[in-house]
Amino acid sequence: MSKKAISKSVIRRMPRYYRFLGELEQQGCIRISSRELSEKMGLTASQIRQDLNCFGGFGQQGYGYNVKALHEEIGSILGVNKENPTILLGAGNLGKAIATHIDFHKRGFNLIGIFDINPELSGKIIGTLEVQNTADLESFCMEHNPVTAVLCIPKASAADAANRLVSYGIKAFWNFSHYDLRIDHKNVIVENVHLGDSLLTLSYGLNSIDDTED
Ligand code: NAI
Fold it and tell me: Which residues contact 204 (CB under 8 A, 6 or more apart)?
C-alpha cells in the first residue's frame, strides 16, 4: 500500500505502536497476537488489525505478529534510521530541555546546531553543542544543509524566523512557539506542539468524572 493511502489517524498511532513493540522486543517477546497487543495498548483487536494491515499485513492467522519484524517495519515507515540534520532556535529554558532530553537520533534526526538571538548565550554549551548566534544562521545552513528546525522561540518571532528558515532550505518545523505556523510554501511541513493542550484534555477528563460512580 502506498504511503498516501495511510490515514492521518493511523499515522498518529504509529509512534505508539513503535514504542510498545520496542519495549516488547526488549523484554524478549518474539510474537504477539492482536488481542494481547490490544490489551496492552488499550485499543480494540480489530483496530490493531486494521491499522497494521495498512503496512502490509504482518500478522499470520494463528501466529500473531512477529514483534521484531513489525517494530523494524514501522520504524522504517517512520524514518527512524534517517539522520535528518536538525537545528534548534531559542536556547532558553525550553530549548535547553528539548536539546538535552529528547533523543533525536532514536527518532531519525541529528541535532547539529543550536541558535539564539541573545549574544550573551553564544558559546554556552548545551549537551554537546555550542550555542551560536542567529547572525551565523544563514552561513551555517548553507554549509550544513539542515532540513528540520525546532522552534523554541517566543510567539512574536516565530513567523519571521520560519520564513527565513524556509529560504535557507528548512523543510520541516517542530514548532513549540505558541504560534500556529501556516507556512505557505510547498513541501514544508509543520508539527505544532502545545503541552498545555494535553493538560487541558486531562482537565476535561477530570471534569467529566462522575463523582457518584465511586
Ligand atoms: P525563554 O525566554 O527561556 O527562551 C526563549 C529564547 O529564545 C531566549 O533565549 C531568546 O533569546 C530566544 N529568541 C528569541 N527570539 C529569537 C529568534 N528570533 N531567534 C533565535 N532565538 C530567539 O523561553 P522558554 O521558556 O524557553 O519558552 C520559549 C517559547 O516556548 C515561549 O514562547 C513559550 O511560550 C513557549 N513554550 C511552549 C510550550 C509548548 O508546549 N508548546 C511549553 C513551554 C514554553
Answer: none
- Tell me the three-class secondary structure of 104-120, residue by residue: CHHHCEEEEEEEECCHH
pLDDT digits (tens, 9 = 90+) for 3-54: 456 788 888 889 999 999 999 999 999 999 888 989 988 989 888 888 888 7
CA separation for the pair 160, 54 (Å, rounded):
38
Atom from ligand 1 closest to the CA of residue 176: 41
Residue type, 138: E
Look up residue 196 and give its three cell numbers.
Answer: 498545555
Q: Which residues line ligand 1 (CB under 6 A)?
A: 89-95, 115-118, 121, 134, 152-155, 157, 161, 176-178, 193-196
DSSP-based three-state secondary structure for 147: coil
* Angle between helices 34-41 and 8-26 in degrees, nearest 10: 100
